[in-house]
Each structure stands twice: as C-alpha cells, then as structure tokens.
Write a structure and sequence with these properties.
The complex is a heterodimer of chains A (260) and B (245). Chain A is of the alpha/beta class and 260 residues long. Chain A has ten helices and ten strands. In chain A, the strands form two sheets. A six-stranded mixed sheet of chain A has the order 6-7-8-3-9-10, with helices on both faces. Chain A has a four-stranded antiparallel sheet with strand order 2-1-4-5, with helices on one face. The longest helix of chain A has 19 residues. Chain B is mainly α. Classes of the chains: A alpha/beta (260), B mainly alpha (245).
Chain lengths: 260, 245
Amino acid sequence: MIEIKNLKKSFGNKTILHDVNVVMETGKCNLIIGSSGSGKTVLLKCIVGLFTPDSGVVSYDGQVMTDLSVEEKKLLRQQIGMLFQGSALFDSMTVEQNIKFPLDMFTTLGHRDKMKKIDEVLQRVNMVGVNKKFPAEISGGMKKRVGIARSIVLNPKYLFCDEPNSGLDPQTSLVIDKLIQDITVEYNITTVVVTHDMNSVMEIGEHIFYMYQGRKQWEGSNKDIIHSKDEKLNEFIFASDFLQDAKQMRMIEAEQHNKE
Amino acid sequence: MKFFSKFGQYLLMLKGMFTRPENPKMYWKEFMHQCVEIGIGSLPIVVIISLFLGAVTTVQTAYQLVSPLVPASTIGQIVRDSMILELSPTVVSIVLAGVVGSKIASELGNMRISEQIDALEIMGINTKTYLVLPKILAALLMIPGLIVLSAFLGIWGGRTAANLSNIVASDIFDVGLRSNFSAFNVYFALTKAYTFSFIISSVPAYYGYFVTGGSLEIGRSSTTSVIVSCILILIADYALAALLI
C-alpha cells in the first residue's frame, strides 16, 4: 500500500500539487487520471522520488520515503518497477541486456539463472525471440512490453506506469492494459498507472483518482465513474462528441425509465 | 547569479559522484567501456593531428631559422619542446574537447531526455556515480596517455618531414632532440594533461546530465559544452604556465 498525505509541490511560483491525499491499494490497478497539466505526472514523480515534495508524506507500506537514509532509499527503489512513457530502454543494449541489467546490478545469480529469469519475463510479456534485438529495431508496443519485462524482473512490490498507452494503437493499448492488470494480480503488487486514456480507465481502473488543477477531485472505481455527478470529471470523461452523444443517450434513457 | 547557480550545481554533481557503488563489477565494466570509447575511439584523430603538427612545426621552424649562426639541430630541439610543452597537451586537448566532449554531452543528454537516467534512478542506482564518474576517471587515465603518445608521434612526424623535405638530416635532427632536455617539461605537460582531461570530461558531463527540453537542446548543450571546455582549457593553460614556469 502506498499512502500519500498532504503532498505539495511547486516549481518557482507555480504550485502544481495542492495537499494531495491518496491511498494506493495493494493488488489493484490504481489509476491517476486527468487532463494534461493537471499534475498527475508530477504526482507520480513525487511518489517514486524523482521529485522531492515541498511538504507532505509518501509512505510505502509504512516506510516514509523522506525519512529513509540514502541506503534505505536504494533498497526501497529496488522494490519499485517503472514503465516510462517512452519506455526508457537503454539504446546501446539489446532487449536481453536491458532486462539483464537490474539482475547484474542487484543480484548474485549465475549466468544460467539470469538467462532463465530473462526468458521467463519475456515469455510473460509475449516477447519470445527478440532477445538480441536493439530497442531501435522493435515497435513502440514491443518496447512497452520489454519495459514491463524489465520492471518486473526483480519481482517488485510496486509497479508504476507513466502513460503506458501513449503512442499506441487501441488494440495494442488493450494488450498492454491487460498485461498490467494480469501482472498486478499475479505478483500481488501495488500498481499505479498515470493515464488519460478512457479505454484504460474502463478496462483496468479498479481504483481511480481524478486530478484537476493539482488537486484530487474525485476518487472511485471504473464502475462508479460513469455515474459520477462531478462536473469536472464529467467534462473530462465526456470530452469527445461521441461520448457527449453517449451521455445524452444515457440521460434520455434515464428519463424514459423514470417516466415508466 | 546564473553563473554561480550553475557552478554550484556543477560542484554538487561532482560531490554526488562519490557514493558506494551498488555493484563494483558493473562500475568497473562501465569504466573499461569508457576507457575504450575515450581512449581507443580518439586514437585515429590524435595520431593524424600529432603527425601533422610535428611535420608543420618542423617546416615552419626551418623557414624561420635563416641565420647561419643557428645550427640546424635546433629545429629538432624546437619541435621537441613545442610538442611537449604546448602542441600536444593544448591542441590535442582542444580537439578532444570536440571529439570526446560532444560525445559525452550528447550521450548523457539523450539519456536524460529519453528518461533513461530516470529509469536508472528508479532502480536505485546513483546515476552520477554510474554515468559521470567512470567517464571522468577514464578521461583522466586515457587522455594523458594520448597526449604522451601525441608528443612522441609529433616529434617523429617532424623528424620524418625534416628528412623527406631535405630540411635537415635525421641524425642532425636527433642531436637537437637530445640536447638541453628538461624533465620538468614532461612534468609540466602531464600537469596540463590531467587538468585538461578533467575539464574535457566533467564540463560536458555537466551539460549533458542537466539538459532539459528536447533533441534541439541536446545539440545546443553539446555545442555549449565544447565551447566552455575550450575556453576553460585556454584559461587553465595560461594559469598553469604562469604558475609553474
């Protein structure tokens, strides 16, 4: 479980996050959604420690990140896996070397065990046979899957995904979403996904936080979101004409239902 | 104010490099990789430049030494001291600031922009120790070696040019090479070499590591790092000459 209390973050005179309080549950896909500039990526970077919050507390299963020593923080970070928006694979390394890197750095496993582990995670993300390819030689969706494989190779307790579907077609997005959801359940990890893709929200949003202008505006699940009365959230969800029509249809249906 | 804040950030980056490595074996691997990149990667350009520097120095010295009172062997002496004192350490360092410096700045800049540095940080790796320190150590090991090699090649290039152009016979050139040799010149050249190596590696590393924006900014920071490195090399060259000679 990841707990965030009264988190504040400013850049210069501009306050990006105002007193954010959220609890990310274990074994669930926790989604941070919101329009561009709402502070969701800054929130994610504060949670993982890439940004230092101005005030507030981020705790991982009771361990307050800001109270940890450098060494303790390093140990905690070894339990964190992260999938970046652009995958952030190391260009100069092959797929296999990318996944092997955390194993080389943090484990004392022998070569055979490392290779076994690499094959295992590559199989898990359906990427068999690409071991010797460089990131430049594979597609965006494949890069994301290799990114996930690298994130889970050390069996993390926490998985963070920053816009996992950006730049992907809807079909590949579904595959990535399904993969993230399956891994969350399978490894029983706390997954935090930052997205503004409504398909992802509906597919894997077990626990959703809607950010609006640096504040947590709404919290709920994918089952609740469609019936939400929150105006700002509805503006975000029903932003497209197609969804506006769907919303109107829903209202008409509701009216007819009431009349009957 | 901006200068002081940048200089402070640079010093903090250097301070941040000194932490316990997570896995020394991986750091050693990275150090050896950088030694190959910086040392072997720069070898061809250093060889070509040094040979021609020596050859041109020989031809131009002979052109200016018109007095019959000055022995022809002086050409060898001048080429030797020019190469050791100035041409090898300074000119080669300025060239390496372009070759190695731009490579370091663009490599780190690209890693920063594509979030590879963030990915390493998330894994719990101190990126200053893992990415910057091996580059600086490799530069401190390889560049002085390249400069020593450059001095030898420059003198040999000068000797060959003197022989081929019938300026002075090789045995007479050798007499000049052996006369009035001061070991201090080598010490001075190596002091310069180590100072310049540190500038060539740490300044571009700073510009690359802290780059913000996109690919355009990587190019800009790479260019700025080369310009700043060259200026600092020239300032350090003058300061060391004033202090040590």
